[in-house]
Amino acid sequence: MTRHLTTDDAGLAEAAALLGAGEIVALPTETVYGLAADARNGEAVARVYRAKGRPAFNPLIVHVADAEAAAELVEMTDDAERLAAAFWPGALTMVLPLRDDAGIAPLVTAGLPTLGVRVPDHPAARALLRKTGPLAAPSANLSGRISPTSAEHVLAGLDGKIAAVLDGGPCPVGLESTIVGLLPEPTLLRAGGLPVEALERCLGTALQEPGDPGSAPISPGQLSSHYAPAGRVRLAVESPLEGETYLGFGPHEGDLTLSRSGDLVEAAAALFGCLHQLDAMGATAIAVAPIPDHGLGRAINDRLRRAAAPR
Ligand code: TXA
Ligand code: MG
């Protein structure tokens, strides 16, 4: 059963309590409804992917209450400070270098060293964020469906799959946020609710677009497919060869194990941390245990196949 919560004090307190307990809750923003999880809780984040039925792990946007909270998570460049002062709260997501001490679950960034952050311009969302801290939230639709702009839209896709929806009425903007990469060249990653012209006026320069000559090689798609361990990777291995570092799952225990009990939520939460750990161990040959190809297993296998692809 999905609870239907109002945006009064009791509803906000209930939403915060659910999120604090690792549950997932749809929340209103000025752009579209987001499906939120505690950004520091990898298993809660894994539940977001599971509920959406996403067949792949794309990095998620993290929502914070104000620019000060953002500065605890990312390195705010001068351009980022300028854009934040002009457009936050608002329909602008900035992709910036992730701070080492941010404490964000690796699944949120799909293992990348960058983070997309935004301060939503919605009183209920910000009141909730002040209680909970950073919330990772993609749009609250099933994978492949359009973004929801009302609590009814959210429930049409996700009723019974999420703990609650916080009903803040219809979303005034109705379009997803504009995403700008600042790594450090200002680059348009997704057009959205904030016009590009307004951003360019504020920065005093044109935004690059991925693929422009001389632009930094970034786009959500490219970036999200590029974290892979340095070692060669073999998949669906029941008994590793000598010299291979074994990444285990369920009954196949490894040097590192994604989930001893064979729990796909736990495995998804552990995945990118384990891949980074394999690099830190200097693993040159990696064998991965078989992972069932259903539910979150599909996204885990998608990511592992990319890691195993010849480079
Ligand atoms: O308005 C919005 O942005 C809504 C509300 C809920 O805030 N959220 C939203 O999230 O549209 P989602 O997950 O549907 O789209 C997020 C996009 C994805 O295309 C993802 O690849 C990109 O943001 N993204 C997030 N973090 C990124 C990163 N570190 N680098 C590159 N792209 C990133
Ligand atoms: Mg979306």
TrEMBL record:
The keyword Ubl conjugation belongs to this UniProt entry's keyword annotation: no
Any one of the GO BP annotations: tRNA processing
Highest taxon of source: Bacteria
Cellular localization per UniProt: Cytoplasm
Keyword entries, A-Z: ATP-binding, Cytoplasm, Nucleotide-binding, Nucleotidyltransferase, Transferase, tRNA processing
GO molecular function terms noted in the UniProt entry: ATP binding; double-stranded RNA binding; L-threonylcarbamoyladenylate synthase; tRNA binding
GO cellular component: cytoplasm
EC top class, as a word: transferase
Cross-referenced Gene3D superfamilies: DHBP synthase, Threonylcarbamoyl-AMP synthase, C-terminal domain
tRNA processing keyword on record: yes
Reaction catalyzed: L-threonine + hydrogencarbonate + ATP = L-threonylcarbamoyladenylate + diphosphate + H2O
Assigned EC number: 2.7.7.87
Role noted for this protein: Required for the formation of a threonylcarbamoyl group on adenosine at position 37 (t(6)A37) in tRNAs that read codons beginning with adenine.
Matching PANTHER family: SUA5, THREONYLCARBAMOYL-AMP SYNTHASE
Name this polypeptide is given: Threonylcarbamoyl-AMP synthase
The organism of origin for this protein: Pelagovum pacificum
